[in-house]
Amino acid sequence: RNLTDISLLECFIHLRYVDLSENKLQDLSPLSSLTHLLWLKVDGNLLTSAYMQELPYLQIISFVQNRIKDMEGITHPRLASLSLKGNKIQTALGLSHGQLFSLQILELRGNKLESTAGLSLPKLKNLYLAQNAIRSLEGLEGLGQLTTLHLRDNQLGTLDGFCSSLKCLQYLNLRNNGISNLQEVAKLQVLPMLQALVLLDNPCCDEPSYRLEVLVLLPRLQRLDKEPFEQDEQAGANQIRQRRQEEQK
């Protein structure tokens, strides 16, 4: 509706679900009086900041396709799902870790992030970072409950930064990065629960016996590039692994 002013909403203090998508909003301050708000969608506006006064019951926010440049001022204590897909965010360092202790889903696809620093969120389960410019993985040790991590279409050349405190991570998507050496995959051995890995469109996928070599390095892996491992693949990988271990003795 091309709305630029939502001050009228200040009167409706019991609103719980608000969708203001596809307008021309630059200011959300009138929503600060909506203290019963549970769900807010403001996709496709002209917002340059995600800052809002803290709302005690707000659980879901979607800021998709705005012009937001940082993650300052997001402090809602019950927020469980936050989408900032398709903005202009360059760093996550402004996140309020101490106040976002309920956040489980964070969607940051299609931004301008160069690092994962600042994403230390204790309850986070699903983290979507595809289509950024990430070159380094930092600060992942605070993601102890993370189960799904999407890093497709970034600029990772190494897999430094993964650590054993990612003890719940089961699914990792690294499609279309710059990983050229299969030995980088050995750095994923610190992930005790990793079951599914996507490495398609990385240079290392062209190495001979690619699937087998990944399974040799990661014996607990169940699926690679969406394809489950067959029993004969697992048996072959076990033989290679045992032979190499004996050669090293």
UniProtKB/TrEMBL annotation:
<feature type="region of interest" description="Disordered">
    <location>
        <begin position="228"/>
        <end position="249"/>
    </location>
</feature>
<keyword id="KW-0433">Leucine-rich repeat</keyword>
<keyword id="KW-0677">Repeat</keyword>
<dbReference type="InterPro" id="IPR032675">
    <property type="entry name" value="LRR_dom_sf"/>
</dbReference>
<dbReference type="Pfam" id="PF14580">
    <property type="entry name" value="LRR_9"/>
</dbReference>
<dbReference type="InterPro" id="IPR050836">
    <property type="entry name" value="SDS22/Internalin_LRR"/>
</dbReference>
<dbReference type="InterPro" id="IPR001611">
    <property type="entry name" value="Leu-rich_rpt"/>
</dbReference>
<protein>
    <submittedName>
        <fullName>LRC23 protein</fullName>
    </submittedName>
</protein>
<dbReference type="Pfam" id="PF00560">
    <property type="entry name" value="LRR_1"/>
</dbReference>
<dbReference type="InterPro" id="IPR003591">
    <property type="entry name" value="Leu-rich_rpt_typical-subtyp"/>
</dbReference>
